[in-house]
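User: Could you walk me through two proteins back to back? I'd like the raw sequence and the structure tokens for each, with a short line separating them so I can tell where one ends and the next begins.

Assistant: Of course. Protein one, sequence then structure:
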Amino acid sequence: MRVPALVRALCVVTGVVVAGGCTSDAEPAHTPSRVPAERMSDDVFHSDEISLIEYTKNKLIADCLERNGYPEKNQAGVQEHPGTFDYLVPKASDWATRSDEQARLLGFGENSPAEAARVMGLEEGYTKASDDCRAEAAAELGPDSVETVSQASEFANSIASEIAAVLYDGDGAEAKELTSLYVPVMDCLETKGYRPSQQGERNLEAYGAFEKKGRLEGPEPARPAPASGRITVLPPVPERRYVPAPEEAELAVSLAQCARQTGFADKEFALRLRVTRAAIGKYEAELTELTPKVEALAKRAAKLVGQ
């Protein structure tokens, strides 16, 4: 018997897997707090399995379109995007974990990643073929494929909303705790000579944090080239490097230093981990029920694309 991913993660932390579950030393499988943060993406949210399923669906659609006289998607290349739900994994803010060198290089911006070519079709024949190929791909994956992926996305969105409500939208203990973590960081910035834009305003933005004053450097994206009929191929977008303004870079370095001096990152991570685990706990039964469906669908997808 295959043990569901969520139960496997619990067993790794608490005991040894036996047929269908854990040893008696393990906590019950309904305890989401036993799932390590680094395993949440796959063992709770099934990120890589969902990514594989979505890639397989898109590849099946591209192959079908090519058979129907529209090879553009395959010519552009079908990309897999791993880590679909990685954004749900708790972690400290990037600005708080950077070294001085990293902060100076990036400021408060980020590099613009490369993007693969994309195909947009307005031609009636292409639209009909695309709809037919989507239906064909769903049938090949299985009758529950669309619903299973939709459920996984819905649970992820619900958990994300729950986390945001607890940390940002309410006046609860966790929101107050998060706010309090910024106070010593701002005090530290003041010792470095920074002052808020308005006297008495107490948030990092008031000190100029997170304001992007730099520019992107690198080749500009090429102009779209028309393909057949009214089908447009959007060309690949090259990676571009963000270069911060000097004052932006200096503030980013000071902020990173203050985060280290106050222990902000560790405290923020612990809070986010606690809130995320609590949010997961509200959907534990549904996530556990979904696990075997996602695993079976991912197995089917892997066979269809030869992985």
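----
Protein two, same layout:
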Amino acid sequence: MGYRMMCSGDDLVNFLRAEPEKMLGAPHAVHMVALCTVVDEKALEWLLRYEMALDSLTGPIASFLIFYNEKHLRRGRTWYVDTAPPEPAARPYVAGASNSIVDLTQSMTYASDAVARKLGIIDRLPCIVIFDDPAGRECFVLPLDGDLDDTLDDLRTLLSLYYEGEKGTPYFTALLQWHASDQDLRKLKTSEERLKVENGRIGCLPRARARAQLERAKVELYAGRDRRFREYVNLVWPCNPPGVTWQEIREESNYIAKLRKLAKRLEHGRSQEVVDKASMLGVRCTGSKAADLNEAIEAAANNRTDQLLLKLGPQANSLELGRVELARAGLEALQASRLENLKSMSPPSIGQYIERITGKRKRHSVTRITRSGLNLAVQRGPSIMEAVSKGFDLFGKS
């Protein structure tokens, strides 16, 4: 995974040697730190151009770190002031993030020199420093010079060899399990945040205002004024509320209004017409008095009113939020346990695979110099052995 670091070079090395997963927010088997300065123009442009490719290439296996502190730069000046936060911060690379060669150059220059001084490799810049055991003192250096397209191919080969050679180890298995459940945890947290926002509102209004509107609607419905009731509900739910449609709201409110109006007619005494209409509306009364029928009608109206108002509340979202919170807490506990398990294990060494890459680079360099010497020999006629000797003197017999 790619990270943009907002910290000084010294802080980065200290945190990598202490708790890298705390700073990065995720464990990795290998950490790669790109180091280059303002004089390494090609390397800086290469990092900015291929940042997305490097983020995708490293995946959960490795972290690829560059320094990019655009919020802490003095713009418009040729010098840099380190005003980084008290604790180092890392932001995972996001596709489409703002890119500025000026910001990158200033950030990388000061931090890269600081890291190189601390590790004693200032004469190896520009390069990629690779740690497979940050707590130890050993690190590997992959130069960022020559044909940088070859460097990207070398990183692909390196990570392919490393993964294929070590993927069956307990550490890799545990690491990939952690990252798989981390994706699930991120989805749960996204759902939780969405539900919290939704539960902070009812319909299209803030919770307090929506409750006030629903209380007014309730008063109107108890009074039998179904149209006024629907007007207040419409302010909260312009579209269908969860669990009920507007057609159901109209039918239910009309039915309740008819019951309320029927109850008012009983104020003038019981009549056969009222009894028949109550029966048509599904109200049954065993008593013979008007008060008995009125009580039955009021009970039916109140029951249907409560049921309708219940459907207009946020109970469904509240239950869903509780379920998501419970699942998130359980997964966080599992993640913490898996992280502790990873800390107790040693990641596989990448050293042998880096030696293969550097050896291949030396062989290619010797081949290029030899070919160059051969071409020169053809043109000028001196001994071919001069070119071969030059290659061996520079790079040894490997």
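The first strand starts at residue 2 and ends at 6.

Let me know if you want the two compared in more detail.
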